Amino acid sequence: MSEAAATAASPGHARPLYFIVLASASAPRLSAIAPRVSVLADRDEWVHQDYEKVMSDLTATHRLAHDLDVCLEQAGEQRADLIREHGERESSHEAERARLSGEIERQQHEIARRASFKWWVALPIRRAWLAIKGKPPWG
Questions:
Q1: Long-range contacts of 15-20, Cβ-Cβ distance < 8 Å, separation of 24 or more
Q2: Statement: residue 123 has pLDDT above 50
Q3: 112-to-98, 104, 107, 119, 121 alpha-carbon distances in Å
Q4: Report field, pTM of the whole predicted structure over 0.90
């Protein structure tokens, strides 16, 4: 009989793969059981085909797990690169902040200087001097 059609007879098994062995310490016990044992056949090799399918699925799963491990390792490397780049950008931003803070401090000092009485008194003299020399007034 075959797996596909349990009621139809089929030719003998071309290459037997599975054997069931009954063992006992006493021969009389085994002879009492023997008539009730029937022969099991897997003529369509369903068990073997299922085994091949399971092994194929297992191989595909291992391949997928390996691919995921590679992707995870690449993502870890990318994350480390991004963290490093972020640190570099953060330090360059900090340097830029310090530079701008210094510039603001210099500008504040110039504003305070130009707000003084001395600067306003000297301004017309400075502009007249620059006009005599032929230079622009902002020079």
A1: 17/42, 17/45, 17/47, 17/48, 18/42, 18/47
A2: yes
A3: 21, 12, 9, 10, 15
A4: no
